[in-house]
Amino acid sequence: MKKTNYHTHHYRCNHAEGEIKDYVSFAVKRKITELGMSCHVPYKDGRFPEDRMKYSDLSKYFQEIDQAREVFKEINLLKGFECEYFEDCHDYYLELKSKTDYLILGQHYLIKENKEAVDSFYIHDKETLYLYRDSVIKGIESKIFDFLAHPDVFMASYPQWDEHCEKITEDILSSCRKYNMPIEYNANGLRQSRKYPHDIFWKYVSDNYPYIKILINSDAHKPNALDDKFVRISKEKIKKMKLNNIDILPIKK
């Protein structure tokens, strides 16, 4: 199988290290054949400024990827973003899709009816759990995104697996199957000792959706994380579960 990674952050995200050229240089050394840069999408209204680049830096981000492409001819370097799905930004995502190679659906934030923003890493109650499900499914149904990142991120702070977790897992996976959207096994969850990838979630995938496409990504925040022991452990786990691991992202255009 080819070595690839489509979930890659760098210093412009404000919580990662290294420039684009540092990631590409490391990827070339490790014989990664396709690398996608995918910083968190900046919003025109400046929402969530603490963990993403400014909207005014968008052109610089594109320019830096283009410059790296000129230097590193031996690797296929792709432009991408990791995006939440918010209905009021639908046209903006379409605009970005026309300027990038792919977009990731990574629902880091949820917006409640009272306009309060909730971090998906801190879901503690079933009402917010179902809001996560509804937000993700709307993103899948938009047909804008190329894969779903860390689908089990809702378990990061949720007390324990219960019938509500199983229900939203079934609904999300069913939607992914309907729209042929791959899901991600996220090595950074292992790297950071988080509660995802969650064993019960992935057993549910194995038992009920063994043919759904699985992408293993580093979710790198440092260049050397592109090909570390946590990526290798992730590959071993997916192989042991006999899931449908794909190494090349089928990009929607």
- Separate helix tally: 8
Main beta sheet: strand number and arrangement? Answer: 5 strands, parallel
Mean pLDDT: 97
| Share of residues in strands | 15-25%
- Spans where pLDDT lies below 50 across 5 or more residues: none
Fraction of residues in H or I helices: 25-40%
Radius of gyration in whole Å, from Cα?
Answer: 17 Å
**What spatial form do the alpha-carbon principal axes imply?**
globular
Q: Total number of β-strand segments?
A: 10
Distance between the termini: 24 Å
Describe the SSE topology.
Blueprint: E1 4-5, H1 20-29, E2 34-40, H2 58-71, E3 76-83, H3 90-97, E4 102-105, E5 109-111, E6 117-119, H4 126-141, E7 147-148, H5 163-178, E8 183-186, H6 187-191, H7 199-208, E9 213-217, H8 229-240, E10 244-246
Parallel strand pairs: 1-2, 2-3, 3-4, 4-7, 8-9, 9-10
Antiparallel strand pairs: 5-6
Helix pairs in contact: 4-5
